[in-house]
Amino acid sequence: MDIKELAIYKRQAVEASKKRKELKITSQVKVVEAQDFRKKLFGAIKLVKAKRDEILNPLKESMKKTKDLFNPIIDELTETDKSVKTEMDRYVFQQQLVIEEKKKEIEQKVEAGEMSFEKAGEKIEKVEEKINVVKTRTDRDIEIYDESQIPREYYNLDRVRVRRDALAGKVIKGVKVVEKTTVVN
Question: 11-21: per-residue pLDDT in tens?
Answer without folding.
Answer: 999 999 999 99
